TrEMBL record:
<dbReference type="InterPro" id="IPR003593">
    <property type="entry name" value="AAA+_ATPase"/>
</dbReference>
<dbReference type="InterPro" id="IPR050763">
    <property type="entry name" value="ABC_transporter_ATP-binding"/>
</dbReference>
<dbReference type="InterPro" id="IPR003439">
    <property type="entry name" value="ABC_transporter-like_ATP-bd"/>
</dbReference>
<dbReference type="Pfam" id="PF00005">
    <property type="entry name" value="ABC_tran"/>
</dbReference>
<dbReference type="GO" id="GO:0005524">
    <property type="term" value="F:ATP binding"/>
</dbReference>
<dbReference type="InterPro" id="IPR027417">
    <property type="entry name" value="P-loop_NTPase"/>
</dbReference>
<keyword id="KW-0067">ATP-binding</keyword>
<keyword id="KW-0813">Transport</keyword>
<protein>
    <submittedName>
        <fullName>ABC transporter ATP-binding protein</fullName>
    </submittedName>
</protein>
<dbReference type="InterPro" id="IPR017871">
    <property type="entry name" value="ABC_transporter-like_CS"/>
</dbReference>
<keyword id="KW-0547">Nucleotide-binding</keyword>
<feature type="domain" description="ABC transporter">
    <location>
        <begin position="2"/>
        <end position="232"/>
    </location>
</feature>
Length: 304
């Protein structure tokens, strides 16, 4: 019962077709109050399509879509959300302050212009024309516009693309403040560290279905393999026979190794070749996680 009170939006068995292509293939997704959900997946996985159904911008061909228990096109439901999409068309001649005033006027309990500008780090840009701002500044203004209506559910589609490190950190701080206030947030991102820094829950989509759901750590554990790269004269054929090495190959002057027990391999490697240099050790990135999950799920095979 408590669970159902906390659900702010949901997709149940949602199907969306574009001609012969199934962009969503029976997708189930629930969004809860105060929770940041990172919606991840490779290009074309269906993330934007899922968001556009929840926003009422597109209709599902089958299944159920609810926003605050209502149809997503219901104006009362729409007044409770904020949106920052990848592309937005804003009147170029208006100043940032005018855009904020105009947007806030659509909402019943909007934040003040100063508070919105402050949270998004655009207080010094209020009198500037939107069109004359840099790409990163425009993204921050779009964030201010998304939060000015005091939304209970906020959609952020790759919000930090084009932002410098300081702007990204500020946006992360504002996002944390919003969730602490109870706002639910759906974040799509191609940066694993962004999901890691912010998300309580991660859903990975692939070909319009949920491939995996859980914490970021659980997601990483799907792909425990660590990549080790170095310059060494050791023979790759011999290395591939070592226990704890799942792959050994030569990459130009470098050797590339995959291992689920990198500490053991590193100790042995440094002992075996004292001249070893340019050592790099890194965990799997999102792209590798997606590839692995897609392979595990057998979606590629089915689609072929
Ligand atoms: N308006 C449309 N007409 C035809 N096909 C579409 C349309 N919108 C999306 N698609 C297709 O639906 C699938 C899902 O697209 P979607 O944009 O939802 O993916 P995504 O996960 O958001 O990808 P990205 O990471 O590239 O933003 C893709 O194969 C895409 O080509």
């Amino acid at each position: 019962m408590i669970q159902s009170v906390a659900v702010v939006a949901s997709l149940s068995g949602a199907v969306k077709r574009y001609g012969a292509l199934k962009a969503l293939d029976g997708l189930d997704l629930m969004l809860h109050r105060g929770e940041l959900l990172a919606l991840l997946g490779p290009n074309g996985a269906g993330k934007s399509t899922a968001i556009s159904l929840l926003l009422g911008l597109a209709r599902a061909d089958a299944g159920k879509v609810e926003l605050f228990g209502r149809d997503p096109q219901d104006i009362e439901a729409r007044r409770r959300i904020g949106v920052m999409l990848q592309s937005s068309f804003l009147p170029p001649t208006l100043t940032v302050g005018e855009l904020l005033r105009l947007t806030a006027s659509y909402y019943p309990a909007s934040r003040s212009i100063d508070e919105s500008a402050d949270m998004a780090g655009v207080a010094d840009l209020l009198s500037r024309r939107y069109a004359a701002l840099s790409g990163g500044q425009q993204r921050r203004v779009q964030f201010a516009l998304a939060l000015c209506g005091r939304p209970e559910l906020l959609f952020l589609d790759e919000p930090t693309v084009g932002m410098d490190i300081e702007a990204r950190q500020k946006l992360w701080a504002a996002i944390r403040r919003l969730t602490a206030e109870g706002c639910a947030i759906v974040l799509t991102t191609h940066y694993l560290e962004e999901a890691e820094a912010l998300a309580q829950r991660v859903v990975v989509l692939g070909k319009g279905r949920v491939l995996s759901e859980g914490s970021v750590d659980a997601l990483r554990s799907h792909v425990a393999t660590t990549r080790i790269r170095c310059i060494s004269d050791l023979d790759v054929a011999a290395l591939s026979q070592w226990s704890d090495i799942s792959l050994a190959e030569r990459d130009g002057t470098h050797i590339l190794l995959h291992s689920d027990a990198p500490e053991k391999v590193l100790r042995r490697l440094l002992d075996a070749d004292p001249a070893l240099s340019e050592l790099e050790v890194r965990r799997a990135g999102l792209a590798e996680v997606f590839t692995e999950l897609t392979r595990e799920s057998g979606i590629e095979k089915e689609a072929a």
